[in-house]
Amino acid sequence: MRYVIDIYGVLVPALLLWIIVAYVLSAILRRLMQRFDLYRLVWHRALFDFAIFVCLLGGVVYLSEYVT
Fold first, then answer.
1. Which of 3, 22, 32, 63 could form a disulfide with 57 if both were Cys (CB 3.0 to 4.6 A apart)?
2. pLDDT single digits (tens) 36-58
3. How far apart are CA 43 and CA 51, in angstroms?
4. Got the DSSP string for 1-60?
C-alpha cells in the first residue's frame, strides 16, 4: 500500500486522492437519485448522503489495493 503519491514532484497523501474520487462518485449518485426522485424514500437526506460517501470511500480504498 502506498501512503504517498508523487505527482510531478509534489507528494500528495493517497487518502486525499481517494476522497476526491469518492466525492465525485457521490456527486454523480446524488444527481441520479435526485433526477429519479429516490430521495423521497430516505428519512434523513444529509445522513444518507454522508453514509453513501463513506461507503464509496471504503470501496475506492479497497479497490486501490488491487490497482497499485
1. 22
2. 999 999 999 999 999 999 999 99
3. 13
4. --SEEEETTEEEEHHHHHHHHHHHHHHHHHHHHHHTTGGGG-S-HHHHHHHHHHHHHHHH
With cut-offs at 50, 70 and 90, classify the pLDDT of residue 5.
confident
Q: Cβ-count burial of 22 within 10 angstroms (0-12 exposed, 13-18 middle, 19+ buried)? A: buried
pLDDT for the residue numbered 19: 96
Rounded Cα distance between 57 and 26, Å, is 9
If 0-12 CB within 10 Å is exposed, 13-18 middle and 19+ buried, where does residue 56 land?
buried
**For 28-33, what is the mean pLDDT?**
97
Cell numbers representing residue 2 in the block: 502506498
